[in-house]
From TrEMBL:
It holds the Pfam family cNMP_binding. The lineage of its organism: Bacteria, Pseudomonadati, Bacteroidota, Saprospiria, Saprospirales. This is Transcriptional regulator, Crp/Fnr family. Residues 30-115 form the Cyclic nucleotide-binding domain. Coiled coil: none annotated. It comes from Saprospira grandis (strain Lewin).
Length: 190
């Protein structure tokens, strides 16, 4: 079982061993290779996942173009949450940037955990709040910060990992062309 997730739930939420046993019995471990789609646009998000290892990218496919909405790193949770909650097709795709190991719980199993445990409801609410805050911070950054500031923010948050993401994805994420990102990077290094 995912010891990191167990420790996180124990330290952050005080999950009991009995509740952990119930929850962990529902977890499915899956490995994904680089460039593999975890979820394709148009498909329903069936899982809430914890990233044990790897880097993933959420993006909106727009024909020949893609708009990167975010990156998810080891130690984070990932889900196309609106699709997961409503059990409707996703507008977004999730692609593996660096080989990933995910611990996943299905929508149906999560509903069972909510029904059978109090701690499940607390953890579910806290994870939903975290996902909401990430989304809100992203929206505010897009509205109030320059592309250069968004690049620096991303670089400051995860400098050791950001070097592993192709520049075209970073450019898409901050809302500029790869050429504009090159100019930003050149200005910063001066």
């Amino acid at each position: 079982m995912c010891e990191e997730l167990h420790q996180l739930y124990r330290e952050k939420y005080g999950i009991s061993e009995m509740d952990w046993a119930l929850f962990s019995a529902k977890l499915l471990r899956q490995n994904f290779d680089r460039k593999e789609l975890v979820l394709a646009a148009g498909k329903r998000e069936g899982y809430l996942s914890y990233v044990e290892a790897g880097i993933l990218r959420l993006y909106l496919p727009l024909g020949e173009k893609e708009l990167t909405l975010g990156f998810v790193f080891a130690g984070d949770f990932i889900s196309v949450y609106d699709s997961f909650l409503e059990q409707k097709p996703s507008l977004f795709s999730v692609e593996v940037v660096r080989a990933a190991k995910l611990w996943r719980i299905s929508y149906a199993d999560l509903q069972l955990i909510y029904a059978q445990t109090e701690i499940g409801n607390l953890i579910g609410r806290k994870m939903a709040e975290e996902l909401f805050l990430l989304k809100q911070k992203r929206e505010i950054a897009l509205l109030t910060r320059t592309a250069e500031q968004r690049y620096l923010d991303l670089f400051e948050q995860r400098p050791e990992l950001i070097r592993q993401i192709p520049l075209k994805y970073i450019a898409s994420y901050i809302g500029v062309s790869p050429q504009a990102l090159s100019r930003i990077r050149k200005r910063i290094s001066l």
